[in-house]
Design goal:
By secondary structure, the protein is α/β, with parallel strands linked by helices. It is built from 3 helices and 5 strands. The strands form 2 sheets. It has a 3-stranded parallel beta sheet with strand order 3-4-5, with no helix packed on it. Strands 1-2 form a two-stranded antiparallel ribbon. Helix 1 links the parallel strand 3 and strand 4.
């Protein structure tokens, strides 16, 4: 039995009900991150939560976003409550890891 999915907010994306908190990758090597992300693939987890403040997490995810385009839904946080900031990708956010802005504001 796979992990259940449900619509994520107003995005309509069918995200797995279990997501991966990328803060766990903040201080690990790429090798450890690769093994971790392989587990996500094996179990069908398609939603990764990250933030610029999660150390090297975004750097560890970047190769996976390139290798598995469209496979993961990447949610990121900003340091502002402004929808405009969210829409324009704040400096230091997921834009630097090759993500595209699919979800602008929930």
């Amino acid at each position: 039995m796979g992990i259940a999915v449900d619509a994520f907010g107003r995005t309509g994306h069918q995200s797995t009900r279990m997501l991966f908190g990328a803060a766990a990758l903040s201080q690990v090597s790429q090798e450890v991150a690769d093994r971790t992300l392989e587990v996500l693939l094996r179990h069908g987890v398609n939603h990764i939560d990250t933030a610029a403040s999660y150390g090297d997490a975004e750097l560890r995810i970047r190769p996976w976003l390139k290798r598995e385009p469209g496979r993961f839904f990447l949610a990121t946080k900003t340091s502002s409550d402004s929808a405009l900031t969210t829409l324009t990708w704040p400096r230091g956010s997921s834009m630097s890891i090759g993500a595209t802005p699919a979800t602008r504001h929930l």
